[in-house]
């Protein structure tokens, strides 16, 4: 089949003020959600829009290395929670004193509370061994998959749906639970569900774990500024 070269260009004018503000509002009010999920099922058309948003993410060489495993089965969620719990206990041991106490007091997942989990994976073999743009850095396929997660996260905010990213697992445990092939990477376990409240600041900041850094401290001109290391 001959490639389709019939694509046309779209106008690229700025959004209206309202549209622009809506985009920034989604970005600034998106939160990582752990425990505030409502039990209501998410309608299929909403899930479809979230996945479509994810699937429109940029990807290296237009590789689209992602898959989305939709988990609704309580038994599967329970197994994932057990894997989280094991890893979380190990993580707690890595802090000392007050920090350990604080860590242990944090709620870091909503796996069983959220009506839906979406495991987002990255298949490094999606389009052969040599991928445009990935030749000098193999991690570009993982980065692409993270872009898909962020698209989904922002779209979810606009839908009134909360998302919580859980990464406190041994990857092998999740692969086994979900039957994911060895070569495929687990990028994110996302807990997904409606919410009626969101923190106005990151929960980790509210709970005293870590504060947002001043942007000024992170921006350099032309070269890395060692004095700020
Ligand atoms: C790659 C990655 C992995 C994780 C997270 C995020 C990302 C990007 N975050 C969420 C993280 O704690 C949160 O994004 C920050 O604290 C900032 O808060 P807001 O997302 O702005 O609410 C997260 N949160 C949590 O409670 N358990 C977890 O395992 C993880 N893992």
UniProtKB/TrEMBL annotation:
<keyword id="KW-0521">NADP</keyword>
<dbReference type="GO" id="GO:0102919">
    <property type="term" value="F:5,6-dimethylbenzimidazole synthase activity"/>
</dbReference>
<dbReference type="InterPro" id="IPR000415">
    <property type="entry name" value="Nitroreductase-like"/>
</dbReference>
<keyword id="KW-0285">Flavoprotein</keyword>
<dbReference type="Pfam" id="PF00881">
    <property type="entry name" value="Nitroreductase"/>
</dbReference>
<dbReference type="GO" id="GO:0016705">
    <property type="term" value="F:oxidoreductase activity, acting on paired donors, with incorporation or reduction of molecular oxygen"/>
</dbReference>
<protein>
    <recommendedName>
        <fullName>5,6-dimethylbenzimidazole synthase</fullName>
        <ecNumber>1.13.11.79</ecNumber>
    </recommendedName>
</protein>
<comment type="similarity">
    <text>Belongs to the BluB family.</text>
</comment>
<feature type="domain" description="Nitroreductase">
    <location>
        <begin position="27"/>
        <end position="194"/>
    </location>
</feature>
<comment type="subunit">
    <text>Homooctamer.</text>
</comment>
<keyword id="KW-0288">FMN</keyword>
<keyword id="KW-0547">Nucleotide-binding</keyword>
<keyword id="KW-0169">Cobalamin biosynthesis</keyword>
<dbReference type="InterPro" id="IPR050627">
    <property type="entry name" value="Nitroreductase/BluB"/>
</dbReference>
<dbReference type="GO" id="GO:0000166">
    <property type="term" value="F:nucleotide binding"/>
</dbReference>
<dbReference type="InterPro" id="IPR029479">
    <property type="entry name" value="Nitroreductase"/>
</dbReference>
<dbReference type="InterPro" id="IPR012825">
    <property type="entry name" value="BluB"/>
</dbReference>
<keyword id="KW-0560">Oxidoreductase</keyword>
<dbReference type="GO" id="GO:0009236">
    <property type="term" value="P:cobalamin biosynthetic process"/>
</dbReference>
<keyword id="KW-0520">NAD</keyword>
């Amino acid at each position: 089949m001959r490639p389709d070269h019939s694509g046309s260009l779209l106008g690229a004018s700025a959004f209206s003020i309202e549209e622009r503000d809506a985009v920034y509002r989604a970005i600034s009010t998106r939160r990582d959600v752990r425990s505030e999920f409502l039990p209501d099922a998410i309608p299929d058309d909403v899930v479809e829009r979230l996945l479509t948003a994810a699937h429109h993410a940029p990807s290296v060489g237009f590789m689209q290395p992602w898959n989305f495993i939709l988990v609704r089965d309580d038994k599967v969620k329970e197994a994932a929670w057990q894997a989280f719990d094991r890893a979380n206990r190990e993580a707690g041991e890595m802090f000392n004193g007050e920090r350990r106490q604080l860590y242990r007091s944090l709620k870091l997942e909503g796996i069983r509370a959220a009506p839906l989990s979406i495991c987002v994976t990255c298949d490094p073999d999606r389009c052969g061994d040599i991928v445009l743009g990935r030749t000098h850095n193999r991690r570009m396929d993982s980065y692409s998959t993270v872009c898909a997660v962020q698209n989904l996260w922002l779209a979810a905010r606009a839908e009134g749906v909360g998302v919580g990213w859980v990464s406190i697992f041994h990857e092998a445990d999740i692969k086994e639970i979900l039957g994911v092939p060895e070569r495929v990477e687990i990028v994110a376990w996302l807990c997904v569900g409606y919410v009626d409240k969101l923190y106005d600041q990151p929960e980790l900041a509210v709970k005293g774990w870590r504060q947002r850094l001043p942007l000024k401290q992170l921006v350099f001109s032309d070269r890395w500024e060692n004095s700020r290391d």
